[in-house]
Amino acid sequence: MPEGPTIVVFKKRLEKFEGKKVTESDGYNNPFAEEISGKKLISVESYGKLLLLDFKDFLITVHFGLFGSFLINETKKVNASFSLFFGDDFINFYVVKIKKIEKDHDFDQELNVFSKKYKLEKTQKLLLEKYADKKIGDVLLNQDVFPGLGNIIRNEVLFLSKIHPESTVDKIPSKKIKELLQIIKEFSKASVELIEQKIWKSSSSVYKKKEWEDKEVLEYVAPKIKRKTYVVEKVQKLY
């Protein structure tokens, strides 16, 4: 499933359609075709794992799930689930789910590391107030706290902050929590360029790796969230 930085890359690729009128909308999983057709695409934004298409009177959210993708001015052999035509140009989305929501929908940008409104302190407060007794490796995938954060980022930032994923949130020193949140912000933003260069996964420190430097990377499946977890136990401290 694409993580936040990948959705930002998608957003950047689609920005060239901003300000253009949709001459036709189609797709087998698109109940909003008539409402979208004839509308101008005001802007393309991202929030967490969602692509947001602004049509002035409403937003269309695009969720890519595990297998979603899109092509510009190209088609696959299978039918598109959602399509937008701009005269001779078009976007075909495959295996995506879309929703229509109101413009005043509350996307909390203060939790969005890609937003200028992001507030690290708000994330820390939410983490400690609601998830103090949870394992940090589990909470990092909670989209209500960390929109856009997926399993690659989860493993990498815990390693970079030297925190074991089985650590209980309220046992981790406040200074380390702040360090972790800052690393999440910096790593997420830096990932955009790596994804564009197609070297994001290959440049990881521990994700799907057997060793880091001369130390073993332990692989296991986190019991509650059922996600593959990669840990250098000689580096990452259990709190």
From TrEMBL:
Database matches in SMART domains: Fapy_DNA_glyco, H2TH
Keywords carried by this UniProt record: DNA damage, DNA repair, DNA-binding, Glycosidase, Hydrolase, Lyase, Multifunctional enzyme
Hydrolase recorded as keyword: yes
Gene3D superfamilies the UniProt entry points to: 1.10.8.50, MutM-like, N-terminal (3.20.190.10)
Gene Ontology biological-process entries: base-excision repair
Protein name per the record: Formamidopyrimidine-DNA glycosylase catalytic domain-containing protein
Listed GO MF terms: damaged DNA binding; DNA-(apurinic or apyrimidinic site) endonuclease activity; lyase activity; oxidized purine nucleobase lesion DNA N-glycosylase activity; zinc ion binding
Lineage, highest ranks first: Bacteria, Pseudomonadati, Bacteroidota, Flavobacteriia, Flavobacteriales
Reactions performed catalytically: Hydrolysis of DNA containing ring-opened 7-methylguanine residues, releasing 2,6-diamino-4-hydroxy-5-(N-methyl)formamidopyrimidine
Originating organism: Kaistella flava (ex Peng et al. 2021)
Source superkingdom: Bacteria
Protein family: Belongs to the FPG family.
InterPro entries assigned to the protein according to its UniProt record, in alphabetical order: FPG_cat (IPR012319), FPG_N (IPR035937), H2TH_FPG (IPR015886), Ribosomal_uS13-like_H2TH (IPR010979)
UniProt xrefs under PROSITE patterns: FPG_CAT (PS51068)
Domain Formamidopyrimidine-DNA glycosylase catalytic positions: 2-87
UniProt signal peptide: none
